[in-house]
Design brief:
With about 700 residues, the chain is α/β, with parallel strands linked by helices. It contains 30 helices and 19 strands. The strands form 4 sheets. It has an 8-stranded mixed beta sheet with strand order 12-11-10-13-14-15-16-17, with helices on both faces. A 6-stranded mixed beta sheet has the order 1-2-3-4-6-9, with helices on both faces. A 3-stranded mixed beta sheet has the order 5-7-8. Helix 28 (about 660-665) crosses helix 29 (about 665-680). It is found in: Cytoplasm. Catalyzes the formation of a hydroxyacyl-CoA by addition of water on enoyl-CoA. Also exhibits 3-hydroxyacyl-CoA epimerase and 3-hydroxyacyl-CoA dehydrogenase activities.
Length: about 700
């Protein structure tokens, strides 16, 4: 590689400060690549050969990022754990050389400084960052099923103490500038305009001493205190991961190892465990999600150009309306007008927005002025004032076809001819809603998940008459709201609720067979879901379940008919969390199973089946339905199906989604399991035609 193509260039000031600029050619973001080893070695050799350098500033040539991490594509090229271990060892070696330079090395950080970029910054003797909102520091490797492999597990605890380092590395959380300064990750957080000046001043100071002795960085060298920190972290981690994420255990082990046996041995162990994790199925699955979401960011939903959006209207001030108005105003930065039939609805939506913003203010993420500015961009009323200048209306009223028809008509009367009507329905087919429209090309489904401000997925549902421009416009809107949109077919339940329904029905059947509620919920938590199915039913609302299931049965057939539990519960006033009781009781501080439910449903709870078998029984219903959805064109690809299930219902990310999981089990094995369950529990488990055909052909959803 010729010199001018290098991502690393050196320049020298008259005052003895050298400047190392990192600027990866042809890329928007700086990422570290294995091909750079030679370039970095050349730079280090040049620096070592100079006698008159007083300090070095490492900075980025990009306007808005320092180093966003290592390029994880290079991990896919590794065929053995040893190869991946070598990659880590090489990175460690170069950073150790940087750290060993005789003069003061300062990292000047603006924008994302993550993963390998953060490890490079940690190898510098001091760090200065901009206090800009773009600046984020962190080691997010755990989210890819990995641990920091270039010294991060060893340097960070020595810098900020074990407890803080564990918190950062085990969660992969990203720190803003203020927090990074408070924890001691950076020495200074300054305005971007003076970042390089401050870094230069710092570089001219004497090189700070490194704390490398145990006493300095671990509970004052108290062995009991140290093991207490690790025991607590291990306990907390296991509660979250339930043993499904090997990276978390490896992080704890490697940090502890380095603490006991010193930096050098700690680094060796870090590289070894990094190599093993790269080869794990969990990391492969988590990396596949990363690549899928990255690719989806470039997709527009249709070939048309999205229309301009300047203002957005929201119909309904309930929980969904409040959440949709929040992400529209605070994330997408569009002014929002809410319409509700009652003033209380508007006040609810306003209070909901205020509560979310005030939480941010208390955490010092936004200022009071910023809070007021965002609240000013949301207005509302009980009539259609202001709707004549909105470009998109998101409708979030009750699941009632007549009411939706009325909304379509009213918007067509009160808004512009080109205004898009996006309905947030969770089960009603869009073509049925569009039947009431004069301009059906402007009608589209936009299905958000609750709570809107937290759930990353949106389903975009065109009916046959929706124009490509409408699709492109709402996809662009969803992305601006911080969502990952997937375009799905207009059939009852769309994709996410359609694969969720048979899973929930099966959980209800398991419950009626006498398995205790907490045993069933724990089984699916152990499998990797974020909440158990019975807890989920309480959270969503038993009344919502009761409304959706008949629609699914009518549209999709008898296999969606679940056991009769909804009516029994609703007749007893049990709607779930919102009514204070469902399957669980919510009145006390701690939620607990309401034992009277068993009597109501006429069951004697007794643990008869192992948790793993229960989890497989419920999950198989979801897998079979996901394959059907792909076969019917409800989803466009296995990738969309995996992202939809993970982001929409929390399908275990370490399994990569239903389709990757089926590939991992082997399609033949999935069909065998479904047939075994069909013999035992009934026809509803019969494998769909697509899976049978794939098993016979020896196919998989993803080509190896």
């Amino acid at each position: 590689m010729t010199q001018q193509e290098s991502a690393f260039s050196l320049s020298y000031g008259d005052n003895g400060v050298a400047w190392l600029k990192i600027d990866v050619p042809e890329e928007k973001m700086n990422t570290l690549q294995s091909a750079f080893v030679e370039q970095v070695s050349d730079v280090l050799a040049e620096l070592k050969s100079k006698q008159d350098i007083k300090g070095l500033v490492v900075h980025s040539g990009k306007p808005d990022n320092f180093i966003a991490g290592a390029d994880i594509r290079m991990l896919a090229a590794c065929t053995t754990a040893e190869e991946a271990q070598q990659l880590a060892a090489k990175g460690q070696e170069l950073f150790a050389e940087l750290e060993a330079l005789p003069f003061h090395v300062v990292a000047a950080i603006h924008g994302p400084c993550l993963g390998g970029g953060m490890e490079l910054a940690l190898a510098c003797h001091s760090r200065v960052c901009s206090d800009d909102d773009k600046t984020r520091l962190g080691l997010p490797e755990v989210q890819l099923g990995l641990l920091p492999g270039s010294g991060g597990t060893q340097r960070l605890p020595r810098l900020i103490g074990v407890a803080n380092a564990l918190d950062m590395i085990l969660t992969g959380k990203q720190l803003r500038a203020k927090k990074a300064k408070k924890l001691g990750v950076v020495d200074e957080a300054v305005p971007h305009s003076i970042l390089l000046d401050i870094a230069e001043k710092q570089a001219l100071k004497a090189k700070p001493k490194r704390k490398h002795s145990f006493q300095d960085w671990a509970m004052g060298g108290n062995a009991l205190g140290r093991s207490l920190v690790f025991d607590q972290a291990a306990k907390k981690t296991h509660e979250k991961t339930r043993g499904n994420y090997p990276a978390a255990d490896a992080i704890l082990e490697v940090i502890k190892f380095g603490l006991q046996f010193g930096m050098e041995k700690g680094l060796k162990q870090e590289a070894k465990r990094f190599g093993e994790l790269v080869m794990s199925s969990e990391s492969a699955a988590l990396r596949s999600i990363f690549f899928a979401t990255t690719a989806m960011k470039k997709e527009t939903g249709s070939d048309a150009k999205p229309g301009d959006i300047k203002r957005v209207g929201v119909l309904g001030g309930g929980l969904m309306g409040g959440g949709i108005s929040h992400v529209t105003a605070s994330k997408a930065k569009y002014p929002v007008r809410i319409k509700d039939i009652a003033n209380d609805g508007i006040l609810n939506a306003m209070a909901y927005n205020y509560k979310l913003l005030d939480k941010k203010r208390k955490r010092r993420i936004i200022s009071k002025a910023e809070l007021q500015k965002q609240m000013m961009s949301i207005a509302g009323g009980t009539d259609y004032t202001g709707f004549d200048c909105v470009d998109v209306v998101v409708e979030a009223v009750f699941e009632d076809l007549k009411l939706k028809h009325q909304m379509v008509k009213e918007i067509e009367e009160n808004a512009k001819a080109e205004t898009i009507f996006a309905t947030n329905t969770s089960s009603l087919p869009i073509h049925q809603i569009a039947e009431a429209a004069e301009r059906p090309e402007n009608v589209v489904g936009l299905h958000y998940f609750s709570p809107v401000e937290k759930m990353p997925l949106v389903e975009v549902i065109p009916h046959t008459g929706t124009s490509p421009e409408t699709v492109a416009t709402v996809v662009a809107l969803a992305k601006k709201q911080g969502k990952t949109p997937i375009v799905v077919g207009d059939k009852a339940g769309f994709y996410v609720n359609r694969i969720l329904a048979p899973y929930m029905n099966e959980a209800a059947s398991v419950l009626l067979s006498g398995e205790p509620i907490e045993h069933l919920d724990a089984a699916l938590l152990d499998f990797g879901f974020p909440v158990g199915p019975i807890t989920l039913l309480d959270e969503v609302g038993v009344d919502i379940g009761a409304k959706i299931m008949p629609i699914m049965v009518e549209e999709l057939g008898e296999r969606f008919r679940g056991p009769d539990v909804f009516d029994v519960l609703l007749n007893d006033g049990r709607k779930g969390r919102k009514s204070g009781k469902g399957f669980y009781l919510y009145n006390s501080k701690k939620k607990s199973v309401d034992k009277t439910v068993y009597k109501l449903l006429n069951i004697k709870p007794e643990k008869k089946v192992e948790g793993a078998a229960l989890a497989m029984r419920c999950s198989l219903m979801m897998l079979n339905e996901a394959a059907r959805c792909l076969d019917e064109g409800v989803i466009q690809s296995a990738r969309d199906g995996d992202i939809g299930a993970i982001f929409g219902i929390g399908f275990p990310p370490f399994l990569g989604g239903p389709f990757r999981y089926m590939d991992q089990l082997g399609i033949k094995r999935v069909v065998e399991l479904l047939n075994e369950h069909a013999d035992k529990y009934g026809e509803r488990f019969k494998p769909c035609d697509k899976l049978i055909a794939m098993a016979n052909e020896g196919q998989s959803f993803y080509q190896a």
